[in-house]
């Protein structure tokens, strides 16, 4: 006999059953991960305007600011995304700790990668880095002088984002902090991007090795792209 | 050959347990790991020490009973079950640490024996097909594409040994659950109840207290049946689709 179909079951709504199942929670982490990866990619492309010259970067920064209320919608959306990402990863972590309370005495991390094993650490350091970055260039409280850097663009007075970035990265310790913080992001994404394909079920035995290679390379490309900016400032290529 | 063993001894399910040191002398290189333990146990019995308790049954790599973690790796070095591991794999005079499979859902009963009934309950939740009794249909009357048959066959190799959950830093049973789901769900006989199977097996695994998969792939590295971790991707997408179908009441 075929047993009764599951939809006749009473209890919590299927959406909640899914959301708080092991796979549902992972899926939220992966989906929020996609949004974050897309954001990190877009942010880098925007930042690259610095190589086109002062007016380009300032034009780009000014356009972002002029989004007005839309900018706040985007910010809140990103905040919610990061919030969901952290909430569910920590929930997963708590459950995973409980599922394996006793470690092996002769431990051997067979088959796992360092990057995979350090996701929580790299993620939390990245969180710290993001907060510093926001305080540095968005809220501008690390160096309050950044708040009063203005310049002229097409006859308007605008914030001199370009001057702020160059001044900011001329500070060697600050640049090192960025290079290290971004390295941890690279570590996080080295495992994370490939991992999300697995979580969302967008892979199979044949394409899995290819996905791993390409996504790892992508994490490195993002890293090189990002650190090229402080390095260009420090070496005087951008001044 | 001679080995220095560090073996987990535990009196009962609630006992504290600790590693005890034993020497394994005059072990033939062609002895299997379990035969080595048999020799050590004979020795211990002669000395009036309680022999080391461990699980085994078929001793030919098909039942999945021999659940030992050897030097931190379930089933020890190389692919294959503990009973198919031979002492020539080790160096003469090597220190070998033997612990039970570790996962909260596999409680230790005694020494190296763990209770793996949690896997049985996951199977009971949905790891079957509801086939009518009656005369068998003609062979090959239901065509199955070769690629699908191969995938199902690969997944069907799972012997339910529990090494995947024991190797997983999160104590997750995902490789096992997805091997079963892939094996049964790809074939025409298993399709009619695929959604229900996927939902029930995953929910049972969660209920048993197994951890969540972090895509570490330790399971794949130790699985004696060579189940690829990509079956977990198959399970993940099936589970999410089945959940969507469930929320609008069209699960099969
Ligand atoms: C802000 C602090 C962050 C924390 C605390 C954090 C933490 C974590 C943890 C612990 C995991 C592993 C989850 C698991 O498999 O059990 C993870 C996965 C992931 N994270 Fe983060 N993360 C953070 C930021 C980011 C950022 C900024 C990005 C992207 C730019 C990102 C992208 C990803 C991706 C793609 C995954 C993989 C998802 C999957 O396995 O399917 N994370 N994160
Ligand atoms: S998937 Fe592999 S390791 Fe896990 S129970 Fe099946 S045979 Fe054992
Ligand atoms: S004793 Fe049966 S698989 Fe090892």
Describe the overall structure.
The complex is a heterodimer of chains A (239) and B (252). Chain A has nine helices and two strands; from the N terminus they run ααααααββααα. With 239 residues, chain A is mostly helical. Chain A is globular and about 65 Å long. Chain A is 69% helix and 3% strand. Chain A has one domain (22-101, 108-234): 3 helical TM bundles of succinate and fumarate reductases (Up-down Bundle), CATH 1.20.1300.10. The termini of chain A are far apart. The mean pLDDT of chain A is 94. Chain B is an alpha+beta fold. Chain B has two domains: 3-110, Ubiquitin-like (UB roll); 117-247, Alpha-helical ferredoxin (Fumarate Reductase Iron-sulfur Protein, Chain B, domain 2, Orthogonal Bundle), CATH 1.10.1060. Chain B contains eight helices and seven strands. Chain B has a five-stranded mixed β-sheet. In chain B, strands 6-7 form a two-stranded antiparallel ribbon. In chain B, a hairpin with an 8-residue loop joins strand 1 (3-9) and strand 2. In chain B, helix 2 packs antiparallel against helix 6 (194-207), helix 5 runs antiparallel to helix 6 and helix 6 (194-207) packs across helix 8 (230-247). The radius of gyration of chain B is 20 Å and the shape is elongated. Chain B starts with a strand and ends in a 5-residue tail after the last helix. The mean pLDDT of chain B is 95. Chains A and B meet through helix 1, helix 2, helix 4 and helix 8 of A and helix 6, helix 7 and helix 8 of B. Bound molecules: protoporphyrin IX containing FE, iron/sulfur cluster and FE2/S2 (inorganic) cluster.
């Amino acid at each position: 006999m075929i047993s009764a179909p599951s939809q006749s079951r009473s209890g919590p709504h299927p959406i909640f059953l899914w959301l708080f199942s092991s796979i549902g929670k992972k899926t939220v982490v992966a989906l929020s991960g996609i949004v974050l990866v897309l954001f990190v990619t877009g942010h880098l492309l925007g930042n690259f305007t610095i190589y086109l010259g002062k007016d380009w970067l300032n034009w780009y920064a000014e356009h972002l600011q002029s989004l007005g209320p839309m900018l706040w919608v985007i910010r809140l959306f990103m905040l919610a995304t990061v919030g969901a990402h952290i909430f569910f990863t920590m929930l997963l972590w708590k459950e995973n700790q409980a599922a394996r309370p006793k470690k092996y005495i002769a431990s051997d991390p067979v088959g796992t990668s360092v990057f995979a094993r350090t996701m929580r650490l790299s993620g939390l350091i990245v969180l710290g880095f993001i907060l510093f970055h926001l305080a540095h260039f968005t809220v501008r409280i690390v160096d309050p002088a950044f708040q009063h850097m203005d310049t002229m663009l097409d006859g308007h007075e605008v914030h001199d984002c370009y001057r702020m970035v160059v001044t900011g990265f001329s500070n060697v310790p600050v640049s090192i902090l960025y290079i290290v913080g971004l390295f941890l992001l690279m570590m996080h994404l080295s495992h994370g991007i490939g991992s999300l394909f697995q979580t969302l079920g967008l892979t199979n035995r044949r394409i899995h090795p290819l996905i791993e290679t390409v996504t790892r390379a992508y994490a490195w490309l993002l890293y090189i792209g990002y650190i090229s900016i402080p390095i260009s400032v420090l070496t005087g290529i951008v001044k | 050959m001679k080995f220095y063993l560090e073996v987990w001894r535990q009196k009962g399910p609630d006992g504290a347990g600790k590693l005890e040191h034993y020497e394994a002398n005059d072990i033939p290189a062609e002895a299997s790991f379990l035969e080595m333990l048999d020799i050590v146990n004979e020795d211990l019995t002669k000395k009036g020490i309680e022999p080391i308790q461990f699980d085994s049954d078929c001793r030919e790599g098909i039942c999945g009973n021999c659940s030992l973690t050897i030097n931190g790796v379930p089933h020890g070095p190389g692919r294959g079950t503990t009973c198919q591991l031979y002492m020539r794999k080790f160096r003469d005079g090597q220190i070998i640490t033997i612990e039970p499979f570790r996962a909260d859902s596999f409680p230790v009963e005694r020494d190296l024996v763990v209770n793996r009934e949690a896997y049985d309950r996951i199977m009971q939740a949905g790891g079957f097909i509801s086939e009518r009794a009656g005369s068998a249909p003609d062979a090959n009357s239901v065509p199955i594409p070769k690629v699908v048959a191969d995938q199902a066959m690969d997944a069907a190799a799972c012997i339910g040994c529990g090494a995947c959950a024991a190797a997983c830093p999160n104590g997750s049973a995902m490789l096992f659950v997805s091997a079963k789901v892939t094996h049964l769900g790809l074939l025409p006989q298993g399709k009619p109840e695929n959604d229900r199977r996927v939902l029930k097996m995953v929910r049972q695994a969660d209920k048993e207290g197994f951890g969540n998969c972090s895509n570490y792939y330790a399971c794949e590295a130790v699985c004696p049946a060579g189940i690829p971790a990509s079956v977990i991707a198959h399970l993940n997408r099936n589970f999410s689709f089945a959940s969507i179908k469930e929320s609008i009441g069209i699960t099969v």
